[in-house]
Amino acid sequence: MSRNNQMTEVHSLLRLFRAYRDQNDPAFRKIAQAIIDEQLAGNHHSIAKELKSALGTGSRRSGNSLSAVPRDRRRGEELLTIFHEPASTQHLVLDDATRERVDRVIDERRNEKKLASYGYSPKSKLLFWGAPGCGKTLTAHYLANQFNLKVGVVRLNALISSYMGDTASHLQRVFDIAQETPMVLVFDEIDSIAKNRDDANDVGELKRIVNSLLQAMDSFAAKESILIGASNLQYLLDPAIWRRFDDVIVFPKPTASLREAFIQHQLNGVTYTGGMKALVKKTSGMTFAQIEHVLVEAIKSMILEDQKQLTAEQVTRQLKYLQKMVSAMKQGQTGTDE
What we know:
It comes from Crateriforma conspicua. This is ATP-dependent zinc metalloprotease FtsH. The protein is α/β, with parallel strands linked by helices and about 350 residues long. It has helices spanning about 5-20, 25-40, 45-55, 95-110, 110-115, 135-145, 155-160, 165-180, 205-220, 240-245, 255-265, 275-280, 290-305, 310-335; strands at about 80-85, 125-130, 150-155, 185-190, 225-230, 245-250. Helix content is about 50%, strand content about 10%. It has a six-stranded mixed sheet with strand order 1-3-4-5-2-6, sandwiched between helices. Residues about 60-65 have low confidence and may be disordered.
């Protein structure tokens, strides 16, 4: 064997070992397959056959073997939180326009062959935008339930690294795993890694991260996976990011009728002695998450106070506390002080 061939094999083994160390299963299998192909090209068919048999066809996911979840190789933190069983979405309430766009995504994916016969593909890259607590994450789980998929939520605190080049590497590994394993891949607060590259305060790293994200999105062609970017600061997104998404779905704050439907569901049979119309009016401008918080705390008060019915006073008490908390948070953000 020539020295050049030896160096090539050593290089391949180094890449293989690094993929194992980083628990990057897609990269590990890709490099291993390349080694098998090299053996076939050299007419070493028996060796190639043994290697292929040892590699197998499934991902190694247990014990000390490779995990499906990629990790930061420096800190060992998982880059994704995987939900093998999506959350229950029985209490998902959407306005008509949002529901129509979500149903369209489902319809397209269920009629993939029909679209393909005309040269079209179903939507696979979606941008969800709207205030926190308006159903973006729950809708991601809803889509996962429709197609029996896992949900992978990107852990941005682990994804973003202070080391040059690590963030781009992390991004690619996250996309690699979604290419191999069907899932709904969710980038919550995607604006934190996809800000406008014209930002005057950027020192250069932001541009590199956005460019890496654009490249990863361009090459993302997983047939079964769905990519979702969620943001409540959509105006900060780089214009090029918008163009990478197949559809933009807006999640507005709930209308009066949606709030009433959501409240009825959250009460879940608990008798409310106050007026429903008055309660719906009091929750004007609130998100689903805020309404849920108020009702859960009010019902807990009812239970702890040994009462059988939920009173307007119990709900009002929690509403006032929430308003005080929101006001305090706004003051903290603006730096004002009373």
